[in-house]
Amino acid sequence: MRWLETRVPPPLMMLLCGAIGYLASRLAAGPVVPLPMPALLAGGVVAIGLTLNLLPKLAFRRVRTTVNPLRPAMASALVTHGVYRYTRNPMYLGQATVLAGVMLYLQSPVALLAVPLFVLYITRLQIMPEERALSARFPEAYAAFRQRVRRWL
């Protein structure tokens, strides 16, 4: 599976997992879990996810490093401030949160399985290769960062 590492853009994977969740919710004979004000709840979760996804991009822009997840070795700076004090992967956490919000709107427990599918894929085929690249590029700084901050939360 190494050939798949950092090949699929994470936003595309989020959309694919969303499509899988949607199809699963329509094809599965599972129960619908009625949520109070599903659009408001889902919208709030999506807004949190978008914020988690966009704030780190601004931090990357400020230090003039790449935000391209397909080329982690091209990083010119290690960002460890702002939301990065709480999670090493706020953009992916944001994407998972956006996905969770959309799946909540469907009110189908089976649709929510798209979220762990996304997390597993991103962890194995995106985050782990990024960690190797950042460890090679910033050995001491990234090792200290990994000790201080968790991968997801």
Can you describe what's shown?
It contains 5 helices and no strands. With 153 residues, it is mainly α. It has one domain (7-21, 37-65, 76-148).
Shape designation: elongated
DSSP helix count?
5
| Poorly predicted ranges | none
Sheet having the most strands: none
Structural class: mainly alpha
Please state the CA-atom Rg, rounded to the nearest Å: 17 Å
The count of β-strands is 0
Q: Would you list the SSEs in sequence order as H and E? A: HHHHH
| Overall helicity | 55-70%
Question: What is the overall pLDDT average?
Answer: 96
Alpha-carbon distance between the two ends: 26 Å
Fraction in beta strands: under 5%
Number of structural units classed as domains: 1
Give short descriptive properties of this protein.
single chain, 153 residues, mainly alpha, elongated
Topology summary:
Layout: H1 10-27, H2 38-62, H3 90-106, H4 114-137, H5 139-148
Helix pairs in contact: 1-3, 1-4, 2-3, 3-4, 4-5
Brief account:
With 153 residues, this protein is mostly helical. The protein has helices at residues 10-27, 38-62, 90-106, 114-137, 139-148.
